[in-house]
Amino acid sequence: MFGKTALYLKDFDWFIFLLALTIAVVGVVEIHSATQYDRAENFYLKQIYRILIGLFLMALAMSIDYHSLAENVPYLYTGAVLSLIMVLLFGKKVSGSKSWISLGGFFELQPSELVKVVVVIALARFLCEIRTEYLTASDILKASGIVGVPVLLVMLQPDLGSAMSFVPILLVGLFLGGLRPKWIISAAILAVLAAGAGWYNLKGYQRERIYTFLEPERDPLGHGYHSIQSKIAVGSGGFWGKGIGKGSQTRLGFLPERHTDFIFSVVGEELGFIGAVTILVLYFLILGRSIHIAQTARDKLGIYVTLGAVALLLFHILENVGMVVGLMPITGIPLPLLSYGGSSVLATFMMLGLIINVRMRRYVN
């Protein structure tokens, strides 16, 4: 037993672990900086506690063979769906969405974040059991159903941003599973037609929000406010930044949601271009290492699990950073490990644990 444990630990990926921990520590520092004038709560202390819990869940995700997780995924998936139903029935509404369950005064859990981890495993198990070169229409519908049920429940909350983040898991899974060219072309045509039909069916205020996203100055004190203040903060940081705790947009409270959705704006203002780029490099080193782990995985299940997690993390990073610099719509999607928020931190550490899990068992018979 101890020999097998030693063999697993020998392949533990310290590179991913230390990079993730570095990002999390920077997050704590920036959360403290962003909220140091808010005496009501010690956000940075709560973030530290959540990181510690996340590290425990990461260790748990690594310790259980991912094949065992896949075998028991029907139970995990059922529990995940039930948790989303419980949110709809008994959840707490925050910013217009009933997405949270209160676990006492200290912690509020957003189940949709943890459900994403389960969906990655569930879809991976389904796809790796398919023996044909190309997916059939039935396979595509079943895979879409695995992802679609949680997406529907999350949209009922309603939380469009979280619902959108499930889509990359499905797209990457279907691509790896084997899509015939005709299916890819058909999907592209349907997407264009759906976008066109959707545009003409939008209400006036919904179109106005899109116009405001493209041109925030149309509504500088309304829907365009977040984007304008975020870009001002990032731009004012210059190359080297103003220094920790010295960002004017942050200190004076002009930057909204500065410790959650717009934490990257705080990084840009206080650590400058060099700090923002460094954070992005750390993220993409993690993603690059994860892709290498997928390439050396012992089986298809390991490949699907790893790349499903990569797709999810990449979407969160691109959407949040794009939102901060005005290239993507504001959806409320957190930046992994950097943004304040327990559920996101826990889910991210669990996904990284799954990735390392695959690496640790790549040579095990």
Low-confidence stretches: none
Spatial sequence of strands, sheet with the most strands: 1-2-3
How many strands appear in the DSSP assignment?
3
The SSE string, one letter per element, is: HHHHHEEEHHHHHHHHHHH
Total helical segments: 16
Kindly report the average pLDDT value.
84
Amino-to-carboxy terminus distance = 14 Å
Report on the biggest sheet. 3 strands, antiparallel
Q: Can you tell me about this structure?
A:
The chain is mainly alpha-helical and 365 residues long. The chain has one domain (2-360). It has helices at 2-10, 14-35, 43-63, 66-71, 73-90, 111-128, 137-155, 160-164, 167-177, 181-200, 204-214, 225-236, 248-251, 263-295, 300-324, 342-360; strands at residues 92-94, 97-102, 108-109. Helix 3 (43-63) runs parallel beside helix 16 and helix 14 (263-295) runs antiparallel to helix 15 (300-324). The radius of gyration is 21 Å and the shape is globular. The two termini are 14 Å apart.
Question: What's this entry about, in short?
Answer:
With 365 residues, the protein is mainly alpha-helical. 69% of the residues lie in helices and 3% in strands.
List descriptors:
365 residues; mainly alpha; three-stranded antiparallel β-sheet; globular
Layout: helices, strands, pairs:
Elements: H1 2-10, H2 14-35, H3 43-63, H4 66-71, H5 73-90, E1 92-94, E2 97-102, E3 108-109, H6 111-128, H7 137-155, H8 160-164, H9 167-177, H10 181-200, H11 204-214, H12 225-236, H13 248-251, H14 263-295, H15 300-324, H16 342-360
Antiparallel strand pairs: 1-2, 2-3
